[in-house]
């Protein structure tokens, strides 16, 4: 099959997938004697040369600790770090740069909000509302803070297609709901949630809304002001940037009222042995030496995505998803897990007679990298009464030829294990 070469939204806008593939050195290798077919992008994406060069340049030319240093290297490092913050601000269309907090990833961003905002604002009898499709990182922090405060965790159920039951969502929203925490895109199902309906409804009962955008950031244009969310988290490694760095966006009025999450250097204004006063956001929430090179490289990843265009990436991946869905649907005994009408480029499936781990191991020996397991979404697996799924998740550099390789590999799996 011929790889997609046009964005389906506009025949006049070319999508140069083979050109983009050349930007990623890792994709040119062989695994077990086969060309690598990397279909595990929901777990982590590969890194383009511009991101690798940004990391190398920082350590070769500008490496120094940021803020307060007066020597040239520190000035350059600080400038690059704060420029990265501005880049993220524009990427999310946040109103102010101080609304951008650098963290280790989406997980730390959720924990920061849970322990800073949640622990200071939740009381006995209050409620936190999450959904049945959440990643563990958007479940466990809320369980912890509920145990600490006496608040109660409520869960919005999903239907067989992996879509939220919106009638139940509205029913569960009450004046006791203080926080709504919801994924933008499910990592296990690919479902894109209707945030434009959910967020205003939550605000109408006085709740604040945190959106887990780890899966959305590499696939969709994001505008936090248009969404009107109160918090938004993302991870650099999911969006073609480095691991160990992520972002928490928070409304400035909420951040200013929140106590620090961690203590240490940079998050302070004054320190004596008797008393400490705290810095303003964002520095109040960035204790210690940050992941400077990570922030700088994340800015390069954002430039890379925006040069291609998030809207073109989304359209290309949607066409690829449709092609892959139709191709895999022809395989006997395959059952898709997650068939929402609005979903991103994630395919999860299950064979009742072949264990997902056997499938993943077999495909690996064909050079095909997929993810098998519960995908840090055990409640989703429980909902479908299965232990695990096989998941293929697509990125901007995947092709129809790679989908064909996946299908051919699964045909071999069926022959061997049946």
Protein model, in words:
The protein folds into 2 domains: 17-31 and 309-417, Alpha-Beta Complex (Aspartate Aminotransferase, domain 1), CATH 3.90.1150; 52-306, Aspartate Aminotransferase, domain 2, CATH 3.40.640.10. The chain is built from 14 helices and 17 strands. It has helices at 17-22, 49-62, 72-92, 106-121, 140-149, 166-172, 195-204, 224-227, 252-257, 292-308, 310-328, 356-364, 378-383, 400-417, and strands spanning 30-31, 34-35, 37-38, 100-103, 127-131, 152-156, 177-183, 208-212, 231-235, 246-250, 268-271, 276-278, 334-336, 346-351, 368-369, 371-373, 389-393. The chain has a 7-stranded mixed beta sheet, sandwiched between helices. A 4-stranded antiparallel beta sheet has the order 13-14-17-16, covered by helices on one side. Strands 1-2 form a two-stranded antiparallel ribbon. Helix 3 (72-92) packs across helix 10 (292-308), helix 4 (106-121) runs parallel beside helix 5 and helix 11 packs parallel to helix 14. The chain starts with 16 loop residues before the first helix and ends with a helix. The relative contact order is 0.17. The model is unreliable at 1-11 (pLDDT under 50).
Number of helices: 14
* Annotated CATH homologous superfamily of the largest domain: Type I PLP-dependent aspartate aminotransferase-like (Major domain)
Low-confidence stretches: 1-11
Give the proportion of residues in helices.
25-40%
- Assigned CATH architecture of the largest domain: 3-Layer(aba) Sandwich
- The name of the CATH topology of the largest domain is Aspartate Aminotransferase, domain 2
- How many β-strand stretches? 17
Number of domains: 2
Could you give the distance between the termini? 27 Å
Mean pLDDT: 95
Sheet of most strands: 7 strands, mixed
Instruction: Return the structural class.
Output: alpha/beta
């Amino acid at each position: 099959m011929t790889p997609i070469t046009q964005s389906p939204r506009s025949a006049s806008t070319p999508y140069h997938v083979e050109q983009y593939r050349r930007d990623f050195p890792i994709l040119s290798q062989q695994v077990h004697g086969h060309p690598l077919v990397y279909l595990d992008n929901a777990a982590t994406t590969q890194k383009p040369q511009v991101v690798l060069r940004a990391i190398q340049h920082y350590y070769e030319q500008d490496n120094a600790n940021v803020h307060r240093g007066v020597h040239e290297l520190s000035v350059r490092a600080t400038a690059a770090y704060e420029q990265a913050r501005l880049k993220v601000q524009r990427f999310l269309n946040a109103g102010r740069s101080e609304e951008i907090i650098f963290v280790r990833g989406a997980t730390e961003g959720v924990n920061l909000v849970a322990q800073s905002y949640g622990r200071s604002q939740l009381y006995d009898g209050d409620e936190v509302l999450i959904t049945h499709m959440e990643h563990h990182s958007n479940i466990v922090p809320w369980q912890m803070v509920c145990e600490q405060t006496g608040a109660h965790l409520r869960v919005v159920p999903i239907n067989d297609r992996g879509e939220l039951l919106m009638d139940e969502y509205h029913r569960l929203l009450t004046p006791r709901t203080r926080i709504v925490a919801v994924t933008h895109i499910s990592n296990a199902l690919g479902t894109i949630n209707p945030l434009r309906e959910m967020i205003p409804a939550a605000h109408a009962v006085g709740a604040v809304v945190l959106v887990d955008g780890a899966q959305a950031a590499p696939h969709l244009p994001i505008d936090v002001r248009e969404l009107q969310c109160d918090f938004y988290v993302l991870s650099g490694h999911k969006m073609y940037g480095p691991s160990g760095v992520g972002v928490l966006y928070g409304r400035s009025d909420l951040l200013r009222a929140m106590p620090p999450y961690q203590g240490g250097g940079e998050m302070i204004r004054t320190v004596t042995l008797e008393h400490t006063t705290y810095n303003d956001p964002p520095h109040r929430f960035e204790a210690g030496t940050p992941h400077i090179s990570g922030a700088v490289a994340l800015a390069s990843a954002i430039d890379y995505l925006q040069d291609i265009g998030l809207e073109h990436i989304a359209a290309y991946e949607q066409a690829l998803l449709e092609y892959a869905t139709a191709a895999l649907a022809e395989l006997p005994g395959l059952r898709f897990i997650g068939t929402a009408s609005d979903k991103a480029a994630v395919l999860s499936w299950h064979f009742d007679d072949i264990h997902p781990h056997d499938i993943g191991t077999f495909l690996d020996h064909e050079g095909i990298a997929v993810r098998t397991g519960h995908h840090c979404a055990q409640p989703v697996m429980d909902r479908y009464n299965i232990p695990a799924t096989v998941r293929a998740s697509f990125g901007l550099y995947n092709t129809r030829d790679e989908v064909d390789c996946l299908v051919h590999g699964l045909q071999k799996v069926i022959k061997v294990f049946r």
